[in-house]
Amino acid sequence: MQSIQLGPFTFATSLFAFLVAAFLGLFLAAWLDRRRQTRAESVLWRAVLLGVLVGRLGFLIQQWEFYHNDPLSWLDVRDGGLMIPAAVTAGWFYVLWRVLRDKAVLPAVAGGLAIGVAAFSLIMVATGRGGLEPSIPLPEIDLIPLQADFSTPDNLDQYKGKVTVVNLWASWCPPCRREMPAFQQVQASRSDVNIVFANQGEELTAIQHYLNEENLELGNMWRDPHMQLGQAVRSRGLPTTLFLDEQGRLVDVRAGELSAATLNDKINTLQ
Predict the structure, then answer these.
(1) Which residues are CB-neighbours of 235 under 8 A, at least 6 positions away?
(2) CATH class held by domain 136-270
(3) In whole angstroms, what is the distance from residue 228 CA to residue 141 CA?
(4) d(CA 174, CA 172)
(5) Considering the entire predicted model, what is its pTM?
(6) How far apart, in whole angstroms, are the C-alpha atoms of residue 215 and residue 225?
C-alpha cells in the first residue's frame, strides 16, 4: 500500500507511519515522565524539532535552485523536503547528549524511542512497505493524447530509455492544481527525464479549459478516461506520481503534492 487515506486527506505510507510512531513515542515518554518525574518528553520533542530543522536546512542547500527565489517556501515542510540522514543524525546526537547529561531521563527516552521504532516498523510491514520493493512492469494501458479526442490510443512504452515520471491528476483536485507549476518547471529544466501527465477521468473540454485558464504549457499530456493507471497502482487519491525506470518498470509511487525541489530530488535518487 503506497498511501493511506483518512477522510479527505491522503498520506504517503511512510509519512503516516512516522506521524503515528512519533505520537506513540511522545505519549509513552510523557506517561513515564509523570511516573518518574523526569523530562524525557521534552528531550524527544526537541530531538524531533532539531532533526526537522537540520534536515530541512540540508535539503534547502541541496536544492537551492528551486528555493532561492521564494523565501516563504523555505518554511513550507509540507513538500516533505528533508535530508533524512542529516535529520536522523542530528536527532540521535541530541538525544545522546541529553542522556549523558541527565541519566534519569534514559528509561523514558528509551521507552519512547522503542515504541516509536516498533510502531513505524509494524505499519510499514503491514502495508507492504517494509522492505525493498522490486521494480514491476505496468500493465499495458491505452492512453488518449490530449490534442484530439479521436486520436489513436497509445501507452507508456514509448517513454522507455529514460527515467519517467507520470503524474496522475485532475483539474478538480486542489493539490493537483497547486503542484502543476512545479511539474512544468521541472519538465522545462530537465531533458534527461520524461515528465508525463495522465488526467484521470475528465472530459477533454474540462482539461483544456483548466490548462488555458492557468496558462500552462505542458508536454506529454494524456487522458486516462477510465482511470486505469490509478487502479493499476491502487492509488487511493490524487495527486499520485509514478516513477518508472529506463525499462518502463514501476519503481516507486508518491501520494500527495510535490514541490519542484522534492520532485527534482526524487529524480536524482532514481538516476
Answers:
(1) 2, 3, 168, 229, 253, 255
(2) alpha beta
(3) 7
(4) 6
(5) 0.76
(6) 23
The grid coordinates of residue 240 equal: 499520485
The ranges of the chain annotated as CATH 3.40.30.10 are 136-270
The C-alpha cell of 88 is what? 536522523
User: Residue 54: in which H helix or E strand, if any?
Assistant: helix 40-62
Q: Enter the C-alpha cell of residue 229.
A: 493507471
Going from the C-alpha of 141 to that of each of 99, 121, 222, 223, the distances in angstroms are: 55, 34, 12, 11
Q: What is the pLDDT along the chain (271 residues), one digit of tens a residue?
A: 556 667 656 666 777 888 898 899 999 988 988 887 888 889 999 998 999 899 999 999 999 988 888 887 888 776 778 888 898 899 999 999 999 999 999 999 999 999 999 998 998 888 766 544 556 788 889 999 987 545 567 889 999 999 999 999 999 999 999 999 999 999 999 999 999 999 999 999 999 999 999 999 999 999 999 999 999 988 878 999 999 999 999 988 888 889 999 999 999 988 8
Beta bridge partners of 77: none
Residue 102, beta-bridge partner list: none
